[in-house]
Amino acid sequence: VCRLHGRYHEMAPNVVPMDYTKDPDVKLPMQLIINMPELKENPFKERIVESFSEDGEGSLSFNDFVDMFSVLSEMAPRELKAIYAFKIYDFNTDNFICKSDLEKTLNKLTREELTAEEITLVCEKVIEEADMDGDGKLGFADFENMISKAPDFLSTFHIRI
Amino acid sequence: EDKEGDDSNEEDSGSQQNGASRRKNYQRKSRERKKAGEEGSKQRDRGKKAPTKDQKESENKEKKTTKTGKEEENKQKKDRKNSTSSASSNSSDEESLSEEELAMLMEQVEQKKKLISTMRNKPWRMVKKLSVLREAQAFVEKFEGALGKGKGKKLYAYKMMMAKKWVKFKRDFENFKTQCIPWEMKIKEVESHFGSSVASYFIFLRWMYGVNLVLFGLIFGLVIIPEILMGMPYGSMPRKTVPRAEQATAMDFSVLWDFEGYIKYSALFYGYYNNQRTIGWLKYRLPMAYFMVGISIFGYSLMVVIRSMARNANESTADGDDDNFVFSWKMFTSWDYLIGNAETADNKFASITTSFKESIVDEQESNKDENIHLRRFLRVLANVLIICCLCGSGYLIYFVVKRSQTFSKMQNAGWYERNEVEIVMSLLGMFCPPLFETIAALENYHPRIGLKWQLGRIFALFLGNLYTFLLALMDDVNEKLAEEDVVKNITYWTLLSHHNSSVGNDSSATPPPLDPADVPRGPCWETTVGIEFVRLTVSDILVTFITILVGDFIRACFVRFVNYCWCWDLEAGFPSYAEFDISGNVLGLVFNQGMIWMGSFYAPGLVGINVLRLLTSMYFQCWAVMSSNVPHARVFKASKSNNFYMGLLLLILFLSLLPVAYTIMSLPPSFDCGPFSGKKRMYDVIQETIELDFPVFVAKIFSYVANPGLIIPAILLMVLAIYYLNSVSEAYQRANAELKKKMQMQREEEKNKRNNKASTNPTLQDLEDLLTPNTKTESHPKQAEDKKIESPDRTSPVRKPGKGAVVDGSPMTGGRGAVFTPPPHIFVTQPLPPGVRAPYPGQPRPWGHPLGPVPGRGRGQPRY
Questions:
Q1: CA A55 → CA A64, A96, B275, B291, B536, distances in Å?
Q2: d(CA B623, CA A31)
Q3: Cα atoms in the 13 Å half-sphere on the side-chain side of A155
Q4: A151–B640 C-beta distance less than 8 A
Q5: Is A139 part of the contact surface with chain B (CB cutoff 8 Å)?
Q6: B105 and B191: one domain?
Q7: Which of the listed residues A117, B62, B670, B730 has the most CB atoms within 10 Å of its CB?
Q8: Which range has the worst mean pLDDT, B133-142, B511-520, B746-755, B804-813?
């Protein structure tokens, strides 16, 4: 935690006080957070920060910050990780992963190197595979079911600090 | 743990404040608070479900509602507090709590505690977590004291205090433990540059280092140190002295480098140990200890390997063979969140793209197969070629070892002749894998399968080499055994004649002892074997380091600095930078460990050498990777291959156990060196110890146990048990598969249902259209009423507060309106009372997931 606080502090030394006993209300904007070396290369960095920030705009208080790294730590249980992964991949925050979310994910993953047909094909495939209730988009239950069977979700969905 | 620590810190401060403010509260309030707590927990549950299920509203609204809900509840609580405190201030008889109330309280406290312990797993905001946690903790703190008001008050308080202390201690200890893990930062750094698969190699290396450290501790603590401290000093016995003929050159570096001379007659090797039954003032039974340590090394390694395998298998509960979700997994789990380096990220993007393209192609051409005969022919050809290679390398090693035996008889052998075996083995290990890779290109396998094949082949090569080496060594040993008999007689006669001559000179005096360096001695095959292993290990270390230095570092330097004045782009073109070869490195490590296991019985110092090697290679390879390697273009999964490595390790452990067991059980130890000299077989030590050191009845028991009449049934029993367990696990597997099939079926069914519904809906509509005239005529006024009731509800999402609390299914209709808009005339034909509105005829309740009413929203509804 001290390390976390150190990291949080060093991102904006003039804003964040070293002493947290008085419980000040300080938030850091998204721009600072996503420039952390741990997050810098992540294609979903904006989404990660957004889904952990309390106001949904991407600025994190220290509590949110700790929250983020506790979910992304190795100790966090699979269900918790799944919940936040769902949030991260749900780009338009409608609580469903629909086709547009999938397309965005895919584009971020491949840096838009796939053709449009390929993308639509893949998206269709994904929905066909994972959509249990047949409503054409992935609800959280679908997502959890799918992710709980994925072999390397746990090993890849964490950040070490 | 970090987070936990944080929680506790903040909790501590928070709970102190809270505790101070609440300490004045009275017992009576507990009942009121209980109610409030129940409500609170209900709400909490709702809050927990809410983010997973909230349908249409954005999260923000959700949060607001829950928050406001909480605030209001707090207010309520405060009100209650005030009222009750005024009411109950006069009734301050705290002792009048009945047993039932106590039990209730206890339950409450337990519940709160449970909440605290499961807090971490709930998807709440940290702020909320903190506040709830503080509340719960304050509650627990307060009423734990209250609980103790009865009989066992002090004991209870003491128990609680100790429990708290214990928890704190455990937490501190955990933190301490995580800080003690060596090289964590280094591995993390590598991980961030190269992804998790390369890091998995280093974690494997670290694990190996831990195992070897334990082995080293065993050997060093139980064998080498006692021997050095309490055994006879160097030069006191023939086996501990360098023979006269070698003394002149015993300190030369070239001799020492071959582990001859003084090193050969040191505690590093088997031959140095004495066969005295007990040594020193402790009466330490060294031969016994030597034997037991030799066995326990294998026992411990087996246990550790199997345990970690089982743990790995447990961790990957979902086996990867379920290929239902190829694309989904690729989509959602392919990004490695550990990557923090731009170059790696580039590579990762590229590899993800290619993997997507590959699977698209696979998907498109899964049933297309062109020219299967040619491919089959090529595969057979490749396998034949590889088998030829393996046989050739095996023969080469056999030939070389044979030749080295003739060389060893010649005195003036050069450096090359003496080290031929090691050189040839290292060269084979260096050049065969690339050869296999080129041959494997013929086969045109899927890369992952290809990798497995490649690993298997290299492993077979190493293993074949090791075993031919062993066979050749066996020949050597047998020869030495024959030689030994001759030498034994000679030694006997020289000693006798020496004795006789001294007796002849002066019969009264004791014979002057023969200088130990002059005694003729046997070849001591155990030490020879040990020396071979040590030499092999050392040359292996050197080759590894030199390959890294030349193949990676020099190449990287060359590419980096010559690139400025070269005719083509070196970095992108032919030489480029080296990749980190995970499979080769892991195999090298496994193979090396096998040699250590085999050799440690004959050369106890080998484990020490290996510990040094692992330590240096950790730092060296970390440095080399960071300085001169580029991340992989193609990354293969770390988590899956982990158990594969362990399987290889187990295999090689077993294979290295075989020759050692063979020598222990069936070869006679040499007569004049080592802890077992003078015995017929090595395991005679145990019998000796049992007979001499234990009371008689223990010996009797052992003799009964060792009786074949008992051993055979025991083995039979074990086989039966294995059979039984195997069949049970098979049954489980079958059940598992069946369940999987069922789930699949259900899935299909559900999908079909969806499709059918889409198709049946129109027919239903038609039917209802047919029916409507009758009903319409019958219930016209009712219809109008219903319409009135329904229409506001359906058009505006805002609901009347009274209804909001009632079970309502229509937010779902709103959310899924695009898919299923129930035709309006359904309402017309089937007028439902507003309370039981949920099950629409065209829209049955059971969804794929429990889409219950949204409680958080339901409660929050009235507020906006």
A1: 10, 20, 78, 68, 64
A2: 33
A3: 22
A4: yes
A5: yes
A6: no
A7: B670
A8: B804-813
Q: Give the CATH architecture of domain A76-160.
A: Orthogonal Bundle (1.10)
Q: B746 by DSSP, 3-state: which?
A: helix
B565: its two tokens: 């004045």
Closest Cβ–Cβ partner in A44, A134, A141 for B849: A141
* Residue ranges covered by each domain of chain A: 1-71, 76-160
| Alpha-carbon span A152 to A130, nearest angstrom | 17
**Dist. CA B283–CA B276, nearest whole Å:** 10
CB–CB contacts below 8 A, A to B: 211
Q: Residue B578 phi/psi, 5° resolution?
A: -80, 150
Q: How far apart are CA B194 and CA B340, in angstroms?
A: 9
| Predicted confidence band of residue B225 (pLDDT cuts 50, 70, 90) | confident
The CATH code of domain A1-71 reads: 1.10.238.10
Is B151 part of any domain?
A: yes
Q: Which of B147, B177, B207 is the last residue of a domain?
A: B177
A80, A106, A150 ranked by CB distance to B123: nearest:
A80
Most confident range (mean pLDDT) of B50-64, B337-351, B358-372 is B337-351
Q: Which residue has the higher pLDDT, B661 or B580?
A: B661
Say yes or no: do domains A1-71 and A76-160 share a fold.
yes
Interface predicted TM-score of the whole assembly (ipTM), two decimals: 0.73
Tell me the whole-structure pTM to 2 decimals.
0.62
Is residue A85 within 8 angstroms of chain B, CB to CB?
A: yes
Query: Using one digit for the tens of pLDDT, what is the confidence trace for B33-91?
Result: 444 444 444 444 333 333 333 333 333 333 333 444 444 444 444 444 444 333 333 33
Q: CA A21, A25, A30, A31: dihedral to nearest 10 degrees?
A: -80
Report if residue B220 sits inside a domain: yes
